[in-house]
Amino acid sequence: MLRKRLTRENLNKWIDGLVASGLRVIAPVRERDGGRGARDGKGGLTLFRPITSSAEIAADYTKTDLPFKEWLFPPTEVILHYRIVDGEPVLEDPEVDATKTVALFLRPCDAAAIPILDSVFGGDYEDEFYMTRRRNLTVVGLSCTEPQPECFCAAVGLSPTSEAGSDILLTPVGDEFLVEVLTEKGEQLVNQYADLFADAGDLTKEQVTEQAIAKMLRKESLPTFAETYSELFEHPVWEEIARKCLGCGVCAYSCPTCHCYDIVDEATLFEGVRCRNWDCCGFALFTLHASGHNPRPTQAHRYRQRVLHKFAYFLQTYGRNMCVGCGRCVIKCPVGMDIYEVVQKVAQASERVGV
Amino acid sequence: MVTVTATGMAMPRETVKVSRNIYKPYLMTIVDMRDETHDTRTLRLQFKDPEVAQTFDWKPGQFAQYSVFGVGECVFTIANSPTRKGYIECTFRQVGKVTSALRDMEIGQTIGFRGPYGNWFPVEEWEGKRLYFVGGGIGTVALRGVMQYCLDNRKLYDEILILNAARTVADLVYKSEMDEWAKVDGVTLVKAVDPGGETPDWDGKVGLAPNVFEELKPTPDNAILVTCGPPIMIRFMLLAAERLGFKPEQVYTTLENRMKCGLGKCGRCNVGPYYVCKDGPVFTAAQLAKLPKDF
Ligand SMILES: Cc1cc2nc3c(=O)[nH]c(=O)nc-3n(C[C@H](O)[C@H](O)[C@H](O)COP(=O)(O)OP(=O)(O)OC[C@H]3O[C@@H](n4cnc5c(N)ncnc54)[C@H](O)[C@@H]3O)c2cc1C
Ligand code: SF4
Ligand code: SF4
Ligand code: FES
């Protein structure tokens, strides 16, 4: 691993250099026209958007309103085109975005979500739509110095300065940045601008990490349920927890790791597309069969799926849990559902019955 | 390539055409069809691409995504055995959007087909064993491919019992081919309808499938039981099998969770940590007993 240091001035030069070299650079941008809903009262949403200059980056952002996910797995996407010619369907493969892209300033939670999505969309039956964009993406993470009240990355095996998912991780140390170059992809971005970077010397991020974790309000390691989900499945605690859930899906749509999707056709008489759209296990129709049978008939069944998918099933299948502790679902939920508290509550309930 | 945004800024953008699209179906022509009941139809399909027709292979018990362009996709079992290649058959019940559109299609028209997906019945492990197939209603469709496979490889198995049951005579599928199954040496065919579902000229049994099966006194020795039907029937079949002395490892069934991708990605069909589309749809009673009740 290469370790470098970078001044603030050179950071901007580097970013502008990347833009000038023809790469698409996507970074947190405050969209002032983006309407209402920003939680910090400064107006506009902070979202990942392509930039043409380092000056466009939202300098004071803590966390974007939506995660980077939409650039790898868009809310809606055409997966097949077809035309009806003389009564016969003619299929056409769609074009997929293959722009060489640098994702700048992902917080460590959002960066860590990318390998999670990779394990779903890669593997056997590789999803070319996702993987094409992924292969063309280099991730530059930015450590957190100001964890927000909802954050709990340290409770799910990460930290405000963890490297997971980043090709390069920047950590502000004093007036400078420590630059950890973690992959070959990352090296390429640094090597081309070698004169902007100096040797890291004795610059370390230890203190920054400690200070950030000290500021974090929720960092008690969360339990997981890979071993106990069977016994927990019928526990009355789900009913109690899910009583207020509206099934609106905001938690899933703002989550960097949620990846459920639907496949639907949209067509006129002679032409159409097959699309995949974000979906959500909290929706009542999600598992409804045509026969009327529904394996998850109530919100308790559905919310249980959300929690167990993230803290049991995914862990069993892919070896890590499916929550990076970004806290978006916590602040966006209209009824204040808090997955950090929910997981603790489930664990306590299971202790009560001796699971 | 460069795209100019609304604000007049130039943004780099390049695209490539997808070349290994996992969602792209094969095109298939409907070459034959047969009505099984008033709402259930069997289609015979042929691949448009002769090369695919030559090479396409599957295992008994696997399923596929069938699609009507402009309407959508839906999941059916591949209802014929790989011992009968060159075409695909599916039997479907008209219950909703896609199945209704499919029902409107005519011979000569084209539909989409992607697959095969999922696991399959371990027919090699069953060699030398007695086989019992018990299907209820549309559930018999899930067994047809594997039954055909075992009938076509008759010598590899001990005696075979097929119980095809339905609520009423009118709901019984594969009426016209049951005689063919019965003719195979060492095969016993029993058909049954629920009490009240019989017609005056009904020559089969009357009774609920699990009861009829129990009355046949099938021995569990060196035997495999494969059953599929509505959830309630499966539940009572599993109980009947237990009373008859079958071990859960000897009993197979299939699950039908709602599906979209068929590839273990879309998150739709899981039962606990297992995706029915990848780890299923075939499960033993022993496996089912360990799964959370999410189906
Ligand atoms: C592994 C498997 C094998 C199946 N085999 C057969 C078969 O051989 N013959 C047959 O008639 N039916 C079979 N089914 C059920 C069949 O998939 C549904 O009846 C069908 O999808 C209904 O589609 P629809 O658009 O007409 O209904 P709608 O109610 O309009 O359904 C809309 C959507 O719901 C989904 N859906 C609804 N019900 C089900 C269901 N029971 N299972 C899965 N998805 C559902 C589909 O994705 C469909 O796109 C099977 C299901 C599975 C999972
Ligand atoms: S955001 Fe809140 S109310 Fe909406 S589905 Fe999620 S937990 Fe339920
Ligand atoms: S479940 Fe909530 S806290 Fe966890 S990664 Fe998703 S949005 Fe963030
Ligand atoms: S159908 Fe998509 S995960 Fe099983």
Instruction: Please summarize the sheet with the most strands of chain A.
Output: 8 strands, mixed
Beta-strand residue percentage of chain A: 15-25%
- Give the oligomer, counting copies of the same chain as homo and different chains as hetero: heterodimer
Beta-strand level of the residues of chain B, as a percent range? 25-35%
Head-to-tail CA distance between termini of chain A:
43 Å
Assign the structural class of chain A, choosing from mainly alpha, mainly beta, alpha/beta, alpha+beta, or little secondary structure.
alpha+beta
Low-confidence stretches of chain A: none
Label the CATH architecture of the largest domain in chain B.
Answer: 3-Layer(aba) Sandwich
Secondary structure tally, helices of chain A: 11
Helix count of chain B equals: 7
Classification by helices and strands of chain B: alpha/beta
The set of bound ligands, ions and cofactors reads: flavin-adenine dinucleotide, iron/sulfur cluster, FE2/S2 (inorganic) cluster
| Whole-number mean pLDDT of chain B | 94
Biggest beta-sheet profile of chain B: 7 strands, mixed
Q: In which order are the strands of the major sheet of chain A placed?
A: 3-2-7-8-9-10-1-11
The percentage helix of chain B is 10-25%
CATH overall fold name of the largest domain in chain B: Rossmann fold
- Tell me, rounded to a whole number, the average pLDDT of chain A: 93
Please characterize this protein's 3D structure.
The complex is a heterodimer of chains A (355) and B (295). By secondary structure, chain A is α+β, with helices and mostly antiparallel strands. Chain A contains eleven helices and 13 strands. In chain A, strands 3-2-7-8-9-10-1-11 form an eight-stranded mixed β-sheet. The radius of gyration of chain A is 22 Å and the shape is globular. The model of chain A has no long low-confidence stretch (mean pLDDT 93). With 295 residues, chain B is an alpha/beta fold. Helices cover 21% and strands 32% of the residues of chain B. Chain B has a seven-stranded mixed β-sheet, with helices on both faces. In chain B, α5 (209-215) packs parallel to α6 (231-243). The complex binds flavin-adenine dinucleotide, iron/sulfur cluster (2 copies) and FE2/S2 (inorganic) cluster (FES). The site of FE2/S2 (inorganic) cluster has 12 residues of chain B, from loops. One iron/sulfur cluster is lined by residues 254-257, 310, 323-329, 339 of chain A.
